[in-house]
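Blinded run. Sample ID left blank on purpose so nobody reads anything into the name before looking at the predicted structure. Input follows.
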Amino acid sequence: MQVKREKFIQLFSEESIAERVNQIADEISDLYENQVPILIGILNGSFIFASDLARAIKIDCEIDFIKVSSYSGIKSKGTIHLRKDISADINDRHVIIIEDIIDSGLTIKFIRDRLLDAKPKSLSIASLLMKPELSEIDFDVNWVGFEIPPHYVVGYGLDYDQKFRNLKGIYTLGEDNYE
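Blinded prediction complete.
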């Protein structure tokens, strides 16, 4: 499928994303005051959100990354493959998973279960986007930037076959792109 950028429809502007990221950062800073949480960003999609969030947090924190894959084009393959594990020891640490988007919840469940095996002191989740109509998770997501309908989105780290991550806003592909 040839995706045409001119047919994208903006859901969230750069400004509205920055405002919401700062709100989440303030809540994290208040909750973990006098603590040093470790943020675990899920690559590749969360790298911009994780970076902006880490810089907006007003307390000391650490950051590490984990990489998994489950998508090809606009379709989930339904299985999760671990591509890069974390390097930090999270035993008895406050851990915050940083996710770009929760669709079905398959990826976040896989990572949450994997990190819980390391026995952190606490485990929280911050996701920029969530599709509640599709999500099939049986645990809470502590911070959600925006809830969205079940459309495929790009920008601000989210991609279509590795393209469009660099867009400053978040966009749907637009109906004409599915022809």
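Unblinding after everyone has recorded impressions. Residues 86 and 159 are 22 Å apart (CA to CA).
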